[in-house]
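User: Can you help me understand a structure? I only have the sequence.
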Amino acid sequence: MDEKAKYELRKFIDELSKYKGRHTELVSVYVPAGYDLNKIISHLQQEQSTAMNIKSAATRKNVIAALERMIQHLKVIGRTPPNGLAVFSGNVAEKEGEQDIKVWSIEPPEPLKIRIYRCDKRFILEPLEDMLEVKETY
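Assistant: Let's start by predicting it. Here is the structure, written out as tokens:
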């Protein structure tokens, strides 16, 4: 990985790490290289219907909206990039009760080997952070 790619990835990680959800309403999805994006979209649509069971009305609304924005974003992308895809979505509004759903995606500089879907208070960034570690020492 060259220095420019490393810098871009570090900047991306730093931006996402500053966001914190009030509940488990930030969605992280990792799509491995070569995986069918339509299967991911179908899985997210199933998760959307499962999210209807969330007790907290605000959390339910935010998770469903985040999943919907992510599904629309993935439909625009169309197919999995050569190195896979990391997609993040959630309500990043400063004040509780407001809604500011944003979506980010990045094709990692190295091929992704794992598939993750997770809703949490923070975005799951460890797989991307692992790519920044020095792998070879002379």
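Now, to help you interpret it: The two ends are 16 Å apart (CA to CA). Residues 57-77 form the longest helix (21 residues). Let me know which part you'd like to focus on.
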